[in-house]
Amino acid sequence: MTATEELKKTALYDAHVALGARLVPFGGFAMPVQYGGILKEHEAVRHRAGLFDLSHMGQFLLRGPRVAEWADALTINAVATMKPWQARYNIFCNERGGAHDDTIFYRLEGDEWMLVVNASNADAMWAHLNAHLADGVTLESHHGKAALIAIQGPASVAMLQPHVDIDLAAMKYYFCARAKVDGVPALIARTGYTGEDGFELFVDGEQATKIWNTLLAAHGQEGLIPCGLGARDVLRLEAGMPLYGHELTAEIGPVQAGQSWALKLSKPAFIGRDVLAAQVESDTYARIVGLKMDGKVPAREGYAVFASGERVGEIRSGSMAPALGNINIATALVEKSAATLGTRLQVEVRGTLHGATVVALPFYKRA
Amino acid sequence: MTLPTGLQFSKEHEWVKLEGDTATIGITTYAQDSLGDIVYVELPKVGATVTQFGNVGVIESVKAVSDLYTPIGGEVTEINTHLDADPAAVNRDAFGEGWLFKVKVTDASQTANLLDAAAYEKLTAE
Question: What ipTM describes this predicted complex?
Answer without folding.
Answer: 0.90
